[in-house]
Amino acid sequence: MCCDSKRRFLLLYATQKGQAKAIAEEICQQAGAHGLEADMHCISEMDKYNLETEKDPVVIVISTTGTGDPPDTARKFVKKIQDTALPPDHFAHLQYGLLGLGDSEYMFFCNGGKTVDRRLQELGARHFYDTGLADDCVGLELVVDPWIDGLWLALKEALLLQKEKEGMNNVVDAVTSSPSPAPHVVHELNLSSEVQNLKLEDEGARSSDVLSQKLDDINLVAPARNTELSLVNSVPPVSQAALNIPALPPEYLEVQFHGTHGKNPHLSSLISEETTFEVPVTKAVQLTRENAIKTALLLELDISDTVFDYQPGDAFCVICPNNANEVEELLHILGLSEKGDDFVCVKVKQGTKKKGASRPQHIPERSTLKFILTWCLEIRAVPKKAFLRALVECTSDAGEKRRLQELCSRQGASDYMRFIRDSSVCLLDLLHAFPSCKPSLNLLIEHLPKLQSRSYSVSSSNLYQPGKLCFVFNIVEFPACSARPVSRKGVCTGWLAELVAPLLHPNKNTLDTKGENFSAEKIPIFPRPNNTFHLPADPSVPFIMVGPGTGISPFIGFLQHRQKLREQHTDWEFGETWLFFGCRHQDRDYLFKQLRCFLENGTLTHLKVCFSRDSSTAEVAPPKYVQDIIRLHAKEVTRVLLEEKGYFYICGDKKHMADGVSDTVLDILSMEMEADRLEAMKILAMLREEKRYLQDVWS
Hints:
By secondary structure, the protein is an alpha/beta fold. Among the domains are: 7-164, Flavodoxin domain (Rossmann fold), CATH 3.40.50.360; 543-697, Rossmann fold. Helix 4 packs antiparallel against helix 5 and helix 19 (654-672) crosses helix 20 (677-689). The longest helix has 36 residues, at 182-217. It is found in: Cytoplasm.
């Protein structure tokens, strides 16, 4: 902790995909301009800081993952502060400000930050600055930027108050030997004037930042190449505005080439705190017909030679590579096509101005360039504004330089959202759109986030199929648009589809289609257990499953498991089971027609299906969506949930399905209980609290 103790604050971040870390680094970088020093650490590095003895203000930036969990890097920290033996004044000495990151598309918005915030308050810690909750659904920067702007004055005031408190303690000590109260009065006056000066200093600093940008940018305003707004072209008022752009992030890495001799690290080294397994794909089935809007595949993995264990309802992660053609294309644009198989060493640049600079953990110290671009960096990531700002310096064309400045500026925020974030534009798209932009390799490693593994719900039961693990997915498609001239498949789903192409048989949409063994192709996976999305511990408890489309995936595992239990324990009492399933067309994407088998053997008590795009000649139109069928069975749903203390599971798309199902359940509870909506909301909240209303959803 080498920071000036009078101007120091502790900066902690907890990140899952790198966003919280990037924001913390931005705060750390800006601190110097405000005369402050950030002592920055990942929240998992508990050997490098100690909140129990921390006297300086603490700033925490924390994201949320899964269904409202703190990120993996915060697990130990959260467990530590959740200790019920801690007294209510444990952190009474602590003053902090917290910035939570989340996505309002999900039920438990910013719950990682809220959990830490709430617990710190319970343990006596005090806010020196209001908590910020940033929403990735509409753009994190809408909250992050103003939150950081206001942070500096709050920090300075907190440090001055701390200084005043220490001074007061000194005065109290002095009073015991001297009757004069004058020192305290003078100190009070000095404090108020210092705070006022701080406000003026901060306002002056912000004004000079804006002024310098105006002077820097005034000669970069280029006439519009055409009048249509697009990724590469702006229109007034943005095209004529003086811009507030982010500070240029300091470069901190250097890349050295070391020939072609050596060996790449094992993929397991890319995953922290997890055990990885390379398992063969033994079966692949296309569940949808060729004319279906989406293509759904079922893959079966052989885990018999591993210690991989799971329960129905769990998820697991696939470690996937970037598309090989895109890697080659990127190498070509960077002028490194001949260097892809060369080994490179990535080290911290000597003399870098970046404080606490270190090689990113997901980048090997030594590997081939192609290994880094294939397995380590998310080259499909939507570029953040700090990356755009760095790309400005690598762009030679004045018009392109100006447009990149606009896209990373506050004035161009709506353009950034529309043409980059909402269009899922990636680095390759930008390099094609701005051909004079020639970034260095170290810049890409500094700014591209870690290539994330992809999570999938298990669609099988180890009890029903020992040594096998099945999962279902749609091949994700990104159609071409004005900002992205070529269509692309999802990073992982596209790779898996290509990998199992020899196993696929067209027009097969039953689960029992036999595929040929294809043990030569293996995929790396690791477990991702789900703490709550499991079958009721008591088999006599009834439950309802709602899973349209590939949302049915975990419920196949539920039903397989239940069927095997019924066979093994004929003397047990089993509760009734309901499944609500929906898809577009009965003959194209009814994924698991074997559901009828579960119905016939008694494993499934009630099966309710709907087809949203099929036409009907019936006098009364059949229900189109799962919400519609659930509404038709309002009394039964209420009985299962409230009278029989049953469970309600939802899996699938959140925005277009899960939210609608929740609204339907609220309507049903209100109607059947003859209660107002507020009372129904309380009942639903109770079900969630009791872990009887469970969701496994995605946006």
